[in-house]
Every structure is written in C-alpha cells, then in structure tokens.
Amino acid sequence: MKKRINGYINSIMEESALIKDSGMLFLASFAGSLFLFVANIILSKQFGPEGFGNFKTVLSLFLSASFDRIRRGATLTKYIAEGNTGIIRWFLKLRLISYVIVSTLIFIFRDHIAEFS
Asked: In the chain, what are the domain boundaries?
C-alpha cells in the first residue's frame, strides 16, 4: 500500500507543468476569494445590511452576464488534466478581462447604483 501511494506521489511530482499550472490556478482563485472577502467586509460596514444586500444583488446580475461563468470549473479541470497550458492561460485572461470590465462598469455607474441602495 505504501509503495502504491509513493508511486502516485512520484508520478505527480514528475508532471512539473501540471503542478505549476494547477498552482497558478489555485493562487489566482485564492487571491480573488481573499480580495472578495475583505471587500465584502468593508462594503458591508459602509452600506449597512439593506444597502449591502442591494449592492450584492446588482453585482450578481452583472457577474451572471459575464462570460466567466460558462462552465469554467469543468472545462479547466479537463484541460489541467490534459496539460494544455495555453487554454488555461486563456481562461485566466478571460476571467481577468471580465472582472476588469465588470469593475469598470460598476465604477462608472456607482452613483446610479448608490441611488438604489
């Protein structure tokens, strides 16, 4: 049993590109989640319960319209397993671009969004 486990660990360690790309994906997701957590705490203190609820509703409507939600998890898992680094980088760029666009729209329309809060 111990030889089997060591064999699996050794085969994983030999796939350095897989580990590197998986690590990049994990760090990108972790950094985004950490940023979102801190932003939610700050914004909830600023807006209060009702205003924060309205803000999150508007934000989720914008995010559901972005292309970031299109079967990202299943698709990335497939390409990570295949070792296709080009498509993984493309998905990460797509995620970054969609968040920049949504953030820019929220910044531009912040006064209108604040009226509904």
From this structure: 16-116
